[in-house]
Amino acid sequence: HDCVLATSSVPGVTDLSARGPSARYVWDLARREDSLWVVPLGARGIPGDAHHRDQLPLWLRGELVPVVTDFDLLTPEHRTEERHDH
User: Fold this and answer.
1) At residue 72, what are phi and psi to the nearest 5 degrees?
2) Pick from 49, 54, 62, 53: which is nearest to 21 by CA?
């Protein structure tokens, strides 16, 4: 179940996929800005959030999106819910 596009069910329990990779990363060690990633539950896996499943269609097709680590390219998101950092 750790292969890039492999998912599996639990035989005798369900035919629905129950196991699979939780994320895919491709790191370009020479040029970090060329690195790619995708996660099935999106960039923020919280139900109801705009990014809850935003990457799922890409993940299902085996596609990747750029990893953005340059703070000058990132934009803040303004959330209306209260944030709790513990």
Assistant:
1) -70, -20
2) 62
